Fold:
Amino acid sequence: DAGITQSPRHKVTETGTPVTLRCHQTENHRYMYWYRQDPGHGLRLIHYSYGVKDTDKGEVSDGYSVSRSKTEDFLLTLESATSSQTSVYFCAISESSGGAYNEQFFGPGTRLTVL
Amino acid sequence: KQEVTQIPAALSVPEGENLVLNCSFTDSAIYNLQWFRQDPGKGLTSLLLIQSSQREQTSGRLNASLDKSSGRSTLYIAASQPGDSATYLCAVGSSNTGKLIFGQGTTLQVKP
Structure:
């Protein structure tokens, strides 16, 4: 299995509080991604990173920010959590953006509940 | 906008049966297509990756095919086993940034 860990694995928080989720990889892959998975919507991309300090928005980026100060860590922040952000969050990595190395590997997920 | 559809949403088969899972996409300009498996409450496990220039990939009892012109991929599972019970997701890489667009998945139950 690819070396990807996510922390915390479970979190319950209250509306309006800030939340930061961490993704850590030991594969030295360049690309990192944050997805959320919801019933009826499947997996949707929130933000992704194509290098240290290089990030871009995905399909559902509103209300989320990201940072990547080191190759191995990609942080997802909910500045002020809302109930609509209750979801399972997955981090993924890939070695390259295209060609034969674009296989994405996923972390175990973080289950976030916003009350 | 790329859309990915997987039909059926759920499938139940007896053990030992060969089966096919379907994935269709609306825009044929793809970089690759990836099949994943997800067990309940778990993350995604990559099964097969097909590059846009390839027609199929095989791993053990799994075979995935890709027909870009018709916007279709199939995942063939031979001699199904109860341990194959899971949700199978296909995802299309539609840009050179590696972003994946996912289907909703097919939940497979293999009965002993």
